[in-house]
Backbone:
């Protein structure tokens, strides 16, 4: 705001001072005592901005205003001092306090008087903001059962977690209030390195593990440090919507590629065609179709990456949940060229609000990634990181995952059985297909390509069941279906909800 002090004019008439007092008395609606000064300051700002007190007009004296409003003078004096510090008023030498001239073109739109000229155009979203806001997924996410991201919190060992948390709080260590070391709490980085080496075959040391607030932040960090605007990124189609959003926000050119039953195929480059800088993969459980990448294709991707210098982002988001045999080993563990960056998260195995994820980077990049993570995002809650480290180090995490794996296997079996019992003709005819494998926390029903899966999803929501349409995860392919999570409702509710969903599906298939 631009203000210009004016020389003190001759004292104004009593009528003008009385007008200011009358306006204040009319607008005066005091709240609690401590807020009296702030309330009066705001009113006087408004009076000056709206021209009630014109430029060069003398304000009532502090004594006169105190008497008129029934306040102590020591409440009024700081108000005038604050307005003077902000540039709203100026004091003459022994002649009182005067309103400054406020240039109309410097006023914020909500404060500008009607005569200040045309209204200012409203703020508009950027292209990135519009891309995010217009994504169709936002129209289908609810807190109803079967919605992705919903969990049964009764499975979480809350009492045990609270004890571990209290143990950390009793340490009274001021370091727990600090942002922590670059890369995250060393204890948690060691625990994660031990865990992924044992369970996923990841080859890493603790310093290669960088703690983040979520998979989106992990992808953002990789894009910041290893990609330039205009680089090409190959993406699974359909696939994880946030990966496409983050990479596009960094100016990468997205190349969506249809997945098959084995995940993302390796691109066949034409003569003279540049290889992509990055490929985003979910090889252990393709999201959202559930395909698993076999060894032959994994080796093909590793050879392609080593030959062309392509970065492979391996998002291992829910590999803990495999209900037939052991989880497949990670792609990173088979990489001898240092081309794979491994992403993991705890939001599906601990609880969604924990906001702890991690990225495992090649040794030569570890120090820079740790520093950049601290500089760009600051490290997360040190208490939570320490508690999670204890949870893992003492064996509670592994036991918790085993419990959840048994429970979710039961829920998935219940959902599949209920679907066959209620929709057997549709499944037997192939008009409805369960395309997900025995892993993860959701399954996907494929619908005919001519079915409007978004209309089906809206009808399901109206019936009390959230089913995310498969098409909202697609960038170019014409995949139609429903994505159903079985993580939140217990088995008896799973069956009841499938029975509520079945008529919606039958009606949609009849119309096709």
Residues:
């Amino acid at each position: 705001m631009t203000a210009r002090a004016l020389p003190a004019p001759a004292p104004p008439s009593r009528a003008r001072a009385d007008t200011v007092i009358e306006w204040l008395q009319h607008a005066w609606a005091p709240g609690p005592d401590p807020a009296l000064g702030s309330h009066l300051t705001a009113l006087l700002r408004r009076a000056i901005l709206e021209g009630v007190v014109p430029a060069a007009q003398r304000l009532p004296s502090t004594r006169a205003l105190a008497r008129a409003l029934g306040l102590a003078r020591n409440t009024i004096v700081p108000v005038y001092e604050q307005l003077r510090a902000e540039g709203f008023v100026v004091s003459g030498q022994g002649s009182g306090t005067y309103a400054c001239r406020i240039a109309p073109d410097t006023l914020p739109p909500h404060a500008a008087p009607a005569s200040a000229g045309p209204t200012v155009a409203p703020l508009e979203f950027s292209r990135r903001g519009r891309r995010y806001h217009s994504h169709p997924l936002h129209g289908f996410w609810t807190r109803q059962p079967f919605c992705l991201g919903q969990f049964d919190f009764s499975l979480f060992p809350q009492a045990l977690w609270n004890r571990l948390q209290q143990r950390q709080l009793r340490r009274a260590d001021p370091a727990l209030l600090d942002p922590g070391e670059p890369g995250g709490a060393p204890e948690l980085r060691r625990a994660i390195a031990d865990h992924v080496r044992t369970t996923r075959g990841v080859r890493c040391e603790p310093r290669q593990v960088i703690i983040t607030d979520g998979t989106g932040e992990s992808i953002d960090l990789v894009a910041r440090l290893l990609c330039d605007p205009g680089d090409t990124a190959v993406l699974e189609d359909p696939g994880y919507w946030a990966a496409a959003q983050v990479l596009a926000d960094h100016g990468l050119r997205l190349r969506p590629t249809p997945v098959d039953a084995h995940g993302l195929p390796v691109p066949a480059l034409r003569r003279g065609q540049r290889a992509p800088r990055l490929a985003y993969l979910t090889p252990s459980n393709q999201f959202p179709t559930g395909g698993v990448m076999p060894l032959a294709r994994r080796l093909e991707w590793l050879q392609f990456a080593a030959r062309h210098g392509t970065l492979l982002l391996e998002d291992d988001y829910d590999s803990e949940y495999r209900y037939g045999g052991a989880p497949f080993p990670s792609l990173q563990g088979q990489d001898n060229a240092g081309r794979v960056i491994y992403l993991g998260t705890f939001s599906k195995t601990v609880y969604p609000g924990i906001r702890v994820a991690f990225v495992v980077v090649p040794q030569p990049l570890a120090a820079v990634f740790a520093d950049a993570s601290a500089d760009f995002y600051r490290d997360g809650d040190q208490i939570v990181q320490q508690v999670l480290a204890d949870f893992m180090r003492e064996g509670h995490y592994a036991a918790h995952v085993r419990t959840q794996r048994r429970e979710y296997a039961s829920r998935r079996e219940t959902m599949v059985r209920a679907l066959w019992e209620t929709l057997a003709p549709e499944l037997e005819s192939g008009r409805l297909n369960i395309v997900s494998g025995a892993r993860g926390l959701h399954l996907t029903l494929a619908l005919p390509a001519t079915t409007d899966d978004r209309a089906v999803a809206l009808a399901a929501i109206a019936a009390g069941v959230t089913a995310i349409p498969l098409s909202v995860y697609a960038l170019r392919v014409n995949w139609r279906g429903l994505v159903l999570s079985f993580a939140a409702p217990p088995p008896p509710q799973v069956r009841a909800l499938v029975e509520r969903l079945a008529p919606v599906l039958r009606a949609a298939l009849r119309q096709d």
